[in-house]
Specification:
With 591 residues, the chain is an alpha+beta fold. The protein is built from 19 helices and 30 strands. It has a six-stranded mixed beta sheet. It has a six-stranded mixed beta sheet with strand order 12-11-10-8-13-14. Strand 2 (54-58) and strand 3 form a beta hairpin. The longest helix is centred in the middle third of the chain and has 28 residues, at 305-332. The chain is globular. The termini are far apart.
């Protein structure tokens, strides 16, 4: 069944169910960014494979709303589908519920599966649609009715994540959560986001590709904790370990009944941005509800000393894999056939040689020439380029290790560059250095600092349509909040937080350039004006000197790069052989 046929079949079902529109988001029942195959309904109905986007089907029109990371990709994938692209961050483009309010008649019915819509999303829709008296019908999964060979919900086993890696026991974490519950006056806390559950209970799973999480829900009570999960996923040893610490394992589908049985004396705290509307509606009407961001999100964002120590060692291992890969690539690019896919596979081979490697932390973006202009390009057998000794090759990749999660991008010079390519490479580097080297007063947020990375790029009338950086989990999701470096993020950057630094330039049909490190937020000096903060780079890998126009760098920028390269060399050289050391010494030479 092609995309047009699927959309028509959906319209037939909509008419049978008296619906004038149907909405299909990217999420699972836990509002995850990365999801198991079972929940890829938006991809199934549209053919668009990006990680973010919402499809809206009416009886005579259809649209996909996605952000700037995916514009180029979406245009290509939506061709001949009958689904229009709405560039959702562009000026004047309406939000999908605003668009529905405009195109639907009064009293129309909009349907969706309430399991995959958060409370906040539904509130936004209600607000946008109320003027026209448009009704929401949130209890039907029409895609599930159509998708005949839909994959099952995963049932992978969970495993314990040792406290030697995690740095805090389950009990310590639960006590921190309970203290915050008490402060807010709640005796129950509903936790549905998968990475928060994994962090809180020191468990990991393999239900979502690249993300070591398990499909589950949690309710924390004053003296007990309930883990709602398919029992077949919990090995006997893990179950006894959890129960010994007051964590009761129940079947996942029992959570509805649990919520219905809460009393009028109970007070529940939940995150309206993460909790789905079906669970919210299951809570006893008489039970008081407090809506607040997840308690665990802030706690897990600030890495403890054990996590930081582990992560730094993890980053050395990841840097070794990257150095071996870049050396191999530069040596063999004109000697044997290397494609985007074989390059990606070779890097994973180098990572897999490192102790504690579990798998990639996201699908590698390996883009040569114009493919790199698509921020989230994924090579396949039909699309892939063969690399040769000219131009730029961008590789954005990361690893999941028991002792950390990594995310790194390097744009590698494979041969002769144009002056424009060198200029743009250097502009990206200047933005990267500006953010890497900033000293700022405590209280600053990602919205305050984002401009630093963009300023050199803006000077040439260029920009990149995404944030500059994001938080990273610890052997968890590669994208982790609440902090990020973007102009809309107002979360204070705290000591112990991790953020990426990844400015770029993407010219459609030509090339893409990105340089990315992970950075740790640390304290600098304290004066009568307050506590100053700075970033410490924890990614150790050379930046390709062959891409730089040295005349465009200031002396302080050169100094920063020389110091960074000296640190890379010092950290990695003890673990390299003689040939690799000589290569790395040349790649980290002073400029």
């Amino acid at each position: 069944m092609n995309i047009r046929n699927r959309v028509e079949k959906l319209r037939e079902l909509m008419q049978e169910n008296q619906m004038d529109a149907y909405i299909i988001p990217s999420f699972d029942a836990h509002q995850s960014e990365y999801i198991a195959e079972h929940w890829k309904c938006r991809e199934w109905i549209s053919g668009f494979t990006g990680s973010a986007g919402t499809v809206v089907i009416t009886l005579n029109d259809a649209g996909l709303w996605t952000d700037g990371r995916y514009y180029i990709q979406a245009e290509k994938q939506l061709e001949d589908s009958g689904i229009r692209l709405f560039r959702m961050v562009d000026p004047g483009v309406p939000f999908y519920s605003e668009w529905l309010a405009d195109v639907l008649n009064e009293g129309s019915v909009v349907g969706f599966d309430g399991n995959v819509f958060s409370i906040d999303m539904v509130k936004k829709m209600e607000e946008d649609l109320k003027a026209k008296g448009i009704v929401l019908k949130m209890n039907q999964d029409l895609i599930g009715d159509l998708w005949e060979d839909r994959p099952d919900i995963p049932k992978g086993s969970i495993f314990a994540h040792d406290v030697n890696y995690a740095g805090k026991s389950r009990l310590e974490k639960l006590n921190e959560v309970r203290a915050e519950m008490k402060n807010k006056g709640a005796n129950y806390y509903i936790l549905t986001s998968l990475d928060d559950i994994a962090w809180l209970l020191n468990i990991r799973g393999n239900d979502v590709p690249n993300n070591p999480v398990a499909i589950a829900n949690v309710i924390v009570a004053e003296h007990k904790c309930y883990l709602f999960i398919d029992s077949c996923k919990v090995p006997a040893l893990v179950k006894s370990e959890l129960e010994a610490e007051g964590i009761e394992v129940r079947e996942n589908d029992e959570i509805q009944t649990f919520l219905e049985n809460l009393s009028h004396e109970d007070v529940v705290i939940l995150d309206p941005n993460k909790t789905n509307i079906r669970l919210f509606n299951a809570i006893n009407n008489k039970t008081k509800k407090i809506e607040s961001p997840n308690i665990t999100t802030h706690l897990k964002a600030i890495k403890n000393d054990v996590e930081i120590k582990n992560l730094k060692w993890c980053e050395i291992k990841d840097g070794l894999a990257m150095v071996k890969f870049i050396k191999w690539l530069k040596h063999f690019v004109d000697k044997e056939e290397i494609t985007e896919i074989t390059a990606e596979e070779k890097l994973e081979d180098f990572r897999s040689e490192q102790e504690g490697f579990v798998g990639p932390s996201f699908d590698t973006i390996a883009g040569y020439k114009e493919h790199a202009a698509m921020m989230h390009y994924k090579a396949n057998q039909q699309s892939q380029h063969t690399l040769n000794n000219e131009g730029l090759f961008l590789i954005d990749s990361g690893g999941q290790y028991y002792d950390g999660t990594t995310d790194i991008t390097r744009t590698i010079v494979l041969g002769k560059l144009t002056e424009e390519q060198k200029r743009d490479f250097t502009l990206v580097l200047k933005g990267f250095i500006a953010l890497s080297s900033v000293k700022y007063l405590y209280g600053a947020t990602g919205s305050n600092l984002d401009v630093l990375a963009r300023q050199p790029i803006w000077q040439y009338g260029l920009d990149y349509k995404c944030g500059t950086g994001h938080g990273v989990g610890f052997f968890l999701n590669v994208h982790e909040g609440p902090q990020s470096i973007r102009n809309t993020n107002h979360v204070t950057l705290e000591k112990g937080m991790i953020v990426t630094n990844e400015p770029g330039i993407y010219l459609e049909g030509k090339y893409g350039i990105r340089i990315e490190n992970m950075m740790l937020v640390v304290e600098d000096e304290k004066t009568e004006f307050g506590q100053f903060m700075k970033f410490e780079a924890v990614t150790y890998c050379p930046i390709d000197l062959a891409g730089i126009n040295k005349d465009m760098l200031t002396e302080s920028e050169k100094q920063w790069l020389n110091n960074y390269h000296q640190e890379v060399y010092t950290k990695l050289v003890p673990y390299l052989n003689e040939e690799e050391r000589a290569w790395l010494k040349e790649e980290t030479r002073e400029i």
